[in-house]
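Worked Example 4.2. Consider the chain below.
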Amino acid sequence: MINIAVLITCYNRKQNTIRCLKALFKQKNLENINLKVFLVDDASSDGSEEAIKELFPAAIIIKGSGNLFWARGMALAWETALKSEEKFDHYMWLNDDTYLLDTAINELLKTKKNGNEIIVGSTFDPVTKNRTYGGTKFTNKFFTPFKYKMVDVNGEIQEIDTMNGNIVMIPHKVYCKIGKIDGKFEHAFADIEYSMRAKKNNINILLAAKYVGECSRKTLNHQNYDKLSILKKISKLFDRKEKPLKSWFRLSFKYGGILWPVHFFIGYIKSILKILLEHKYFKKN
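Applying the procedure from the previous section yields the following C-alpha cells:
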C-alpha cells in the first residue's frame, strides 16, 4: 500500500475546494493507494470548513489564523501530516483551484525512477487547452538564477529546474534530506525556493510526461489595474502574491550567490521600469 498525504490550503473558495477534493477522490486505480487529506482552512468565512466536513469527513482540517496564505498554510499542513500516527510514502502538494484528471496520481507515481526525486505535474486551461502551470528551466543561470521559462509537456519525462506548486509529489526520503516547505515565505516564491533547495542537494525534479490536471491561469484584471496611479501600481508590486519584500530578500540572499544584492535590487528595478513604460504607453493610447 502506498500512503500519500495530500497537502492543501484554502481560503474562501468553497466551490473550488470542493471540486478539487471531488476530483482527487475520483482517481482511477487507487486500490493500492491510500490518500489522506491535510487541509488548512485559513479562517474562511464562506462555509468551507462545514462543507468539507460534511462531504469529506475523513479529511483532517487544520484551522489557520487568516494570515497564513499559501506558503505558511502548506507548511502547517505538512507539519500536521508529520505528527500523524500514519507514516507516509509521499507528500503531495495540491492547490485548491487545481482539478486532477482521473489518471493523475498514477501518472505522477509512474514518473518516479528511484524515489529520490520530486515529481511535478503540469496543468492546462480548461478553455484554451494551453499549458498554465508546471515546470520551468533556467534561461541563463550564469547571469541570473531567477529567470526561467515554462517547459511544454511533450509525452516524455523531462528534468526541470524549478516548479510551480500546483501539483507536486515529494517522496518521504526527499523530505528527510531537505525538509518541508519554508514557512518563512509569505506566499510567493516558496515553491521556487524548494526547487532550488532540492537541486542544491542533488535531488532531481522530473516533469510528468502528460498533463495531470486543469487550472486556469491567474490573469491581471487590466481594466481595473490600468485605472491605478503609478504609485499604487508600484505599491501593489510588494503584495504577498507579487514580489513581497521579505520573501524576495530571502530568496535572493539564499540563492543569489555573492551578487545577491544585485539580483535583489534588479528584480524590483526591472518591475518598476516595466510599470512606468506600460503606464506611459497606455496614457498615449
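The CA atoms of residues 252 and 260 lie 5 Å apart. The radius of gyration is 19 Å. Compare this with Example 4.1 before moving on.
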